[in-house]
Amino acid sequence: MKVRLPLLLVLITGIFGALPFLIPHHVIQTADNEFRNSVLVIIGAFSLVLGVGSIIRHHMDKVRRKREHWGYSWVLLISLLITSIIGLFGGIDGNGSLPTHIGNFHFDIQTIFIRMEVPLGATMFSILAFFMSSAAYRSFKARSFEATLLLLTAFIVMFGSVPLSAYLIPKLPHFAEWILTVPSTAAKRGMGFGIALGGLATSLKIILGIERGWLGGTK
Amino acid sequence: MTHNPWIWVSAILTLGIFSFLYKENPFYRVCEHLFIGISNGYSITFVWHRVLMPTLINPVAHGEKLWLILIAIIGAFYFMYFIPQISWLVRIPIAIVLGYGAGASIPRGIDAAIVQQLRATIITRSTFLSVYNGIWSIVILFGVIATISYFFFSRERKGILKPLSYTGIVFIMIGFGASFGYTVMARVSLLIGRLTFLLRDWLGIIH
Amino acid sequence: MSIWEKLTKIDRRYIYLMLLLVVMIPIIVPFKLHPKPMPPVENLFNAIDAIPPEKALVISVDYSPDTEPELHPMTYALLRHAFARHKKVGILCISLLGLGLAQDALSTVTNEFNSVATTHADSIINGRDYVFWGWQTMPLVPILGMGENIAKVFPVDYYGNKTDTLPMMKKIKNYNNVALLVSIAGGESPFWYITYAQTSFGVRIGVGSTAVMATDFYPYINSGQVTGMMSGMKGGAEYEELVLTKLGIKGRRKATEAMSSQTAAHLWIMLTIVLGNIGYFALRRRKK
Q1: What DSSP string runs through C20-40?
Q2: What pLDDT does C79 receive?
Q3: Residue A189: what pLDDT?
Q4: Do C235 and C156 belong together in one domain?
Q5: How far apart are CA A100 and CA C156, in angstroms?
Q6: Judgement on whether residues C67 and C42 belong to the same structural domain of the protein
Q7: Is the Cβ of A70 closer than 8 Å to some Cβ of chain B?
Q8: What is the CATH number of the domain that holds C85?
Q9: Are residues C40 and C173 part of one domain?
Q10: In a designed cystine with C158, which of A203, B207, C132, C171 is the match (CB 3.0 to 4.6 A)?
């Protein structure tokens, strides 16, 4: 029951997922649309429970057991709670039952997102520029013919993609574009076939119950 | 320098994340935890207001589509993940979503990623309507075959397979080189974005 | 320590500091550079220009704050182009965190147009000229569902209005009424649109991609599955250039502004790699 029922469900929904593409009959199309717009939407919405719940449980546990850096877990839990309250009761456009401004100072969900979430997320990824430049300096060496080829291509694409190159060497941006549209395309397409076949095989294994990793154990 | 308190908040958070470049520190950790907290709170807001309310709660409250209650119960099985005795029930909503996704991807994936891509690789008479197009199409065809041959591990690399797979490496290196060049561009772009914010919106050095 | 050894062992803090300066100085003192649009960007521009009045452009804002500096200028540029040419625009998000960014771009660009509009017809009005459908759980739901009925996928729009009551939605029912769908993505969502929307409903796909992902889409441009593409900030700057030169729209062009720093940073990174290699080869020669 614990294993067979999910495996049976994955087989049925798997076949059901493929059918509308293969059989364009309106009965199947209508059933497929209803399934997606109602069943998948609602189940998908509840899946948030898994993510948010896991985070809350992990940090509550950290606070309870006073593990290393447990104080920061309070920051997470409190910010999650405050943002949720503002969003749920203040409304998306700030017209909910909870006031989201004091005078000209607005603290609605959109303002919090643009003024806090965006700078945090964008900066977190921007610091990769520093690590990448340091790593490129340290490890990007022309040790062999293949490495030299990689290096040269990177240089052409790097320089060819900034406007200055068009002023200094007018043909360079076009050459960089040619690299992307011809040899790089050939390599990416060759690898793409392998990736696509691998993905299809995995999908088939999931539907047929051969791939069971998603069950999280067989008990 | 700006007097807008929200710009100050954004700038302080930006500096907090940048402080990681020196070393991991409490300022950075606070910012990191804030980031996760806010993004989850934001997600809860939209899932409630724009998904559950119009799709489930409003129709059921008006007595329409009462069968959605059953779907909601299946969705609620996600909560069972936190109750070890019946945690296996979480497999049911996962099976429905995963099965449908896998099934939907098979015929469409074959068409989009294999059939259409093969069609674009095959050379026909129309390929040579332009001379350059014809030449580059031959290069692409050759490059695709060479790249695939590099990943062909079922036979020892000798005879024609040896030079072919080596040519494959050449194409792959060019591909990776191009990717690296573009990766540099991507990472630098993000940095420029944040520094422009600090210098322009916060400090007001540039206009 | 010899000079060659020093060249291979520059402290990472100096590398960081130099990169910071190299990026910062051109922001303060920029040099004027006009990006030259490449064919994939021109193709995208022309495809949007050719959208007939009865059909819509759909923009899928599929990025989150982590790629905002790179991709947000593309959304601005596309919206400016579409609104200047009076194209109908539908906006959705595959990424939940894209919602706030899409709303930010929409409010900024509509304000730009409405602040200079003299008549009601000139103004950009929600529901008439554009609809922000919002976000729906699971990417497959909107991508496949919009082929049948957009209003059923998004019963209410981002602002909470009933979608099927909006004037624009009387004519824009599903992919049959969509001339082009542009996915501006920090991840793989353009592939999903190609795999699901294009194979099932034949909708044309345009891409706005991060530079990291851009090379993966070139095989799809070659096969004709992707109509046109903007790659990274460079692609955004090229599109901004087209919007400026062909339409005369003068909003803030964030991607073009960034090109001075982008140029300096690329040159600096190339220089550090060359220095590292000089040191490496000099040491290797000595050892021999």
Answers
A1: HHHHHHHHHS-----PPPPHH
A2: 97
A3: 97
A4: yes
A5: 23
A6: yes
A7: no
A8: 3.40.50
A9: yes
A10: C132
Residues of A in contact with B191 (CB under 8 A): 126-127, 129-130
Residue C82 Cα distances to B191, C58, C59, C141, angstroms: 29, 10, 10, 26
C288 or C257, greater pLDDT: C257
3-class secondary structure, C52: coil
Identify the pLDDT of residue C147.
Answer: 95
- Structural domain span for residue C184: 34-255
**Under a CB-based contact definition with an 8 Å cutoff, are residues A109 and A119 in contact?**
no
Chain A residues within an 8 Å CB radius of C273:
136-137, 140, 151, 155
Return d(Cα A13, Cα A8) in angstroms, integer.
9
Q: What is the pLDDT of residue A218?
A: 59
Please report which confidence band the pLDDT of residue B153 belongs to, taking 50, 70 and 90 as the band edges.
confident
One-letter-per-residue 3-state SS of chain B: CCCCHHHHHHHHHHHHHHHHHCCCCHHHHHHHHHHHHHHHHHHHHHHHHHHHHHHHHHHHHCCCCCCHHHHHHHHHHHHHHHCHHHHHHHHHHHHHHHHHHHHHHHHHHHHHHHHHHHHHHCCCHHHHHCHHHHHHHHHHHHHHHHHHHHCCCCCCCCCCHHHHHHHHHHHHHHHHHHHHHHHHHHHHHHHHHHHHHHHHHHCCCCC
Q: What are phi and psi of C32, to 5 degrees?
A: -75, 120
- Which has the closest alpha carbon to C207: C63, C104, C96, C83? C63
Q: Is residue B100 within 8 angstroms of chain C, CB to CB?
A: yes
* Total domain count, chain C: 2
Which pLDDT score is estimated for A219? 63
Which of A46, C197, A211 shows the shortest CA–CA distance to B99? A211
Domain ranges of chain A: 1-67, 70-126
Give yes or no for residue A59 having a pLDDT over 80. Answer: yes
Q: Are residues C9 and C106 in the same domain?
A: no
- Residues 75-114 of chain C with CB under 8 A from chain B are 96-97, 99-100
Neighbouring residues of A107: CB distance < 8 A, sequence distance ≥ 6: A86, A100, A101
Query: Which of B98, B58, B41 minimizes the C-alpha distance to A40?
Result: B98
Is A129 in CB contact (< 8 Å) with chain B?
yes
Which of B30, B38, B55, B88 best probes binding to A when mutated, by most A CB atoms within 10 angstroms? B38
What pLDDT is recorded for position B28?
97
pLDDT at position C287: 80
**Domain positions in chain B:** 122-202
* Number of CB pairs, chain A paired with chain C, less than 8 A apart: 156
Question: Which pLDDT belongs to residue B158?
Answer: 84
Are C154 and C271 members of one domain?
Answer: no
Same domain, C268 and C146: no
What's the rounded mean pLDDT across residues C217-229?
A: 97
Residue of C nearest to A184 (CA): C215
The answer to whether the beta carbons of residues B48 and A88 sit under 8 Å apart is yes
Shortest CA distance to B105 belongs to which of C159, A196, C250, C32? A196
> Contact A184/B20, CB-based, under 8 Å?
no
